[in-house]
Amino acid sequence: MVFDQSSLLLQQLVNGITLGGVYALIAVGYTMVYGVIQLINFAHGEIYMLAAFVALTLITQCHIPFFASFFITIGICGCLGVVLDYIAYRPIRKSPRLAALITAIGMSIFLQNLALILWGGQIHSFPQDVLPKIFTKIAINFSDVIVTWLEVFILCVTVCSMFILHYIITRTKIGIAMRAISQDKVTASLMGIPVNRVISFTFFIGSALGGVAGILVGIYYNAVFPTMGYVAGIKAFAAAVLGGIGSVPGAMLGGWVLGITEVLGAGYFSSEYRDGISYAVMILVILFKPSGLIGKPLPQKV
Amino acid sequence: MHDLQWKKIVIVILVLLLPCIPFGSSTDYILRILTTVYLYMILSLGLNIVSGFTGLLDLGYVGFYGIGAYTAGLLTIHFNLPFGVIILLAAVNGAIWGILLGVPTLRLTGDYFAIVTFGFSELVVLFIRNELWLTRGPMGISGIASPSFFGHSLSESWHFYYLVLVLLSIVLVIIHRLEDSRIGRAWYAIREDEIAAQCCGINLVKYKVMAFAISASIGAVGGAFYAKWFTFIHPDMFKFWESVLILCLIVLGGMGSIYGTMLGALLIIPLSEVLRIILPQYLMNSRYLIYGIILVIMMRLRPDGLIPFQIAQSQKNKHAQKRLFRHHETYP
User: What is the pLDDT of residue B3?
Assistant: First the structure.
């Protein structure tokens, strides 16, 4: 099949939007946790990886249907995030930030190697017969631009998750509590907000969304391996920084911008430096506009 | 003062004892492990300058290690320069990259600094992997000639044992002198409170860039030795996990404490060798699990490490310490 230039570009855009949506889902987890406790949760990428493994195990070993295991996995991942906060981050919440950062790195390595021990280092894939048949069918075929139902599904899940999240943050009581804590933890606790419980909830939501992303990517590339969370985690962090860390709409925007940039860069510039594009974007944003696309500049406290 | 004398005795014993190890009954295997321990001592002392003395978490240290290793490898393959020249050039190249990384990241602190250095080291690995014309990419560089002195090529394990011991001693002396100097005190001041340090007239740009350059060049020297010793280098040897391992050494020993970082290397590197023997082949890499647990537990129970920096400092110069920590009573 011969692609002409414009349909190639369109096809790349479709891939970029799919990938960007996944980055956005992971980035939201980073940015929410950063918003409430100012910590880069390095272990977030590992939760994304564990989600893919848990879903794979549920489907292939326990023979639970796809959509049921999808929701069970999301629940498990959310709980995992809460446990992570409880055993690793809560005890050192009053320590210097460097200590929290090192703990996060330690947890990330721990979880990644735990997955390596439990599932082995080889690349696992979802057997084709367990996934819904419709995923591989073509949804839209517009002058050689092919969009599969899987891509439509990923986009729908991403957008729905974003809307649910937006609703939780802006309309519900716990969302308001989250925003209050991100403004000022001490004052929020004086106003009667159960700070630790709200932080746990934040971890739950962030990790659940990371879990959604993990399953989606696991199916999309049909490859699940222990180091998948490390690269994706950093790229999602790059997306969060690009949008402005601490800002949820920023993370969504950053995810899409980064996904599209990466796919176009890999297509037209150099596919070997695919990961490098994300790192370079991240470094440039941190150096020249640390507040990101739509974040507020941070005042320097003396 | 009693503690100081005790420490001096230990140092004298070590200085007398360490060079004698190859004459004892030790096998090649033990010597190789000890050489690795000393190599990691060099690396952790280098990382300690930025992360311990200056207080910035450098996650990309392995980038400089890789730069040093490839500098040495390529210079040996193409020009076959003498070992001393190669070590010097690797150090200079490391320093150049340290400055190139240091200057743009001057304003950054904490998490953003960590993540930019991480990105740097990943870019270094990507470059090494993809620029085949220079680095032979994923094939790695093999057959790097061993260093030779006065016509004799080093080949036995004990040759390298002495070589790395000499390098370690040089690095140790340099860092000791730096720690006691005006530069070292400026670094501590920056670590304790950057803004206060600036108000005291410390030139942040100068001292931070200096810290990056020295730290990077020590890392590059470690890499150069590694390339000459192992005679084979590969992009996968310089991945992020290596940075984490070195970070783990200094966190365990005590960030900022020279003896602490050396103790960290002495404890963890043999541990990883033991794990290499115990663990089955397919679980080899999972020994990093232990490093992760060590990082988490140390931060929770003993964030200052086994030999905390503060004690090391107070034994040496109580007066300077009082002056340094005056504005920061709550430390640690």
Answer: 65
Provide the number of structural domains found in chain B. Answer: 1
Give the tens place of pLDDT for each residue, B130-184: 888 888 878 888 888 888 777 777 777 788 888 888 899 999 999 989 988 899 8
Mean pLDDT of chain B: 83
Residue B11 counted as domain residue: no
CATH number of the domain to which B247 belongs: 1.10.3470
Residue B6 within any structural domain of the chain: no
Nearest chain B Cα to A270, which residue? B130
Confirm whether B276 is domain-assigned: yes
Dist. CA A41–CA A61, nearest whole Å: 30
Model-level ipTM above the cut of 0.90:
no
Q: Provide, as residue numbers in chain B, all residues whose Cβ is less than 8 Å from the Cβ of A39.
A: 111
Could you list the residue range(s) of the whole structural domain that residue B217 is in? 28-307
Cross-chain Cβ contact A117/B296 below 8 Å: no
CB contact under 8 A, B118 and A234: yes
Long-range contacts of A141-149 (CB under 8 A, 24+ apart): A142/A10, A143/A7, A144/A1, A144/A3, A144/A4, A144/A7, A144/A11, A145/A7, A145/A10, A145/A11, A145/A14, A146/A11, A147/A14
